[in-house]
Write a structure and sequence with these properties.
Blueprint: H1 7-23, H2 39-50, H3 56-71, H4 79-87, H5 92-113, H6 118-133, H7 138-154, H8 160-173, H9 180-187, H10 196-210, H11 213-221, H12 228-238, H13 247-273, H14 280-299, H15 308-329, H16 335-358
Helix pairs in contact: 1-2, 1-6, 1-16, 2-5, 2-6, 5-7, 6-15, 6-16, 7-8, 13-16, 14-15
């Protein structure tokens, strides 16, 4: 199937990205707190993800959507999204608005529940998350899970109704993407204390674990945990040969991973080695982000990379924003943080430029 990717339309997404970066550019240098609101962030997030012409999956989903409308049969997606196809006006972008627009509003609520500074979110959201946010329908399930987890973990008020709702949100998210059961299971590891000893132990075990991950994942997929459709889809990726990476691919990988390594270096130095006291909800999302990044690196460069690493990094972007913003709103900008943010900008601009030029 040949898809009509449009580099010209991708310029719209670059423009929306630039709006957020420009409006919140002062947060790159900021040393004092200033109040702000989420209105512009939410509006841009909804526009960007609804009309995500810079993302290949937008065109893939349109093809699937048209097939479902034509034959009135569910293809690839979960039951909830097919129900939306049936009840909403027959327009692909209305369908996207219902999914990605709802996810954007939920994620803003996640930021509010975790008491994140909206102006720093305005800068970090386009740098770390916005492109990943617009990729898959799974963003709705991910954001609902993160909101449920945030409410459940904070426990600031003895409100049983709120706890029941948070559990319901987490359970509901399981049905909104095939990957959510596994990612929620991985979230349990975030409750294990991450201190100097466990961090050093994980570093020592890293080269050993890399040798065992592929057989383990293949056995896990065949265990019946996933449905047949997901298991078949995953196995086709895992058993495929690793593709050769060209210069552009290598450059993009360096630009993507370098700022993430720097951010984790900063967070680990602060949260683990300096033992800075942080709220348990922020600690949870830091630990969860670290676990996801660790898993992604275990598979990076192996035959499983296209399936496991990309999806784990995708999930990590949603969680990493939370401890990153919390850290930035409580510290002054150092050269290290500024360099990391600058590299994130370069990575995003490279991704936009590549899509626009190759699909012009």
């Amino acid at each position: 199937m040949v898809f009509d990717y449009s580099g010209k339309l991708a310029i719209i997404n670059l423009f929306l990205w630039l709006i957020l970066v420009y409006v919140y550019r002062s947060e790159y240098f900021r040393t004092t707190n200033r109040p702000g609101k989420y209105g512009l962030i939410g509006f841009i997030a909804i526009l960007f993800s609804t009309f995500a012409f810079s993302e290949a999956d937008t065109y893939h989903y349109e093809y699937i959507y048209d097939k479902m409308v034509l034959y009135n049969v569910r293809i690839h997606i979960e039951e909830f999204y097919f129900w939306l196809v049936q009840v909403l006006p027959q327009n692909y972008y209305i369908w996207r608005l219902a999914i990605w627009g709802s996810a954007a509003l939920i994620y803003i609520k996640v930021c509010k529940v975790n008491k994140l500074d909206s102006r720093i979110v305005g800068l970090i959201f386009p740098l770390i998350l916005i492109q990943q946010f617009a990729v898959t329908r799974g963003c709705l399930g991910i954001t609902l899970f993160l909101l449920g987890a945030s409410v459940f973990i904070k426990r600031e008020k003895q409100n049983k109704a709120l706890y029941i709702w948070s559990v319901f949100a987490i359970v509901a998210s399981l049905f909104l993407h095939k990957s959510l059961p596994l990612f929620i299971a991985i979230a349990a590891l975030a409750f294990i204390p991450l201190n100097k000893k466990t961090f050093i132990l994980l570093l020592i075990l890293f080269p050993i674990l890399r040798g065992f991950v592929l057989p383990f994942v293949l056995d896990f997929i065949g265990s019946g945990f996933f449905d047949k459709e997901t298991a078949s889809f995953a196995t086709s990726y895992l058993e495929s040969e690793k593709s050769e990476m060209n210069f552009n691919g290598m450059l993009r990988m360096i630009l993507e991973y370098a700022p993430r390594f720097i951010i984790f270096y900063v967070l680990i130095k602060c949260f683990i080695y300096r033992k800075v006291l942080i709220p348990r909800n922020i600690r949870f999302f830091f630990n969860y982000s670290f676990v996801l990044f660790y898993i992604a690196l275990l598979f990076l460069g192996q035959a499983t990379s296209s399936f496991v690493t990309n999806r784990t990094i995708h999930m990590m972007c949603f969680t990493l924003l939370i401890p990153t913003v919390y850290y930035l709103q409580n510290t002054k900008r150092s050269r290290t943080e500024k360099n990391a943010l600058l590299l994130f900008m370069c990575s995003d601009l490279f991704a936009f430029a590549y899509q626009i030029i190759t699909c012009w």
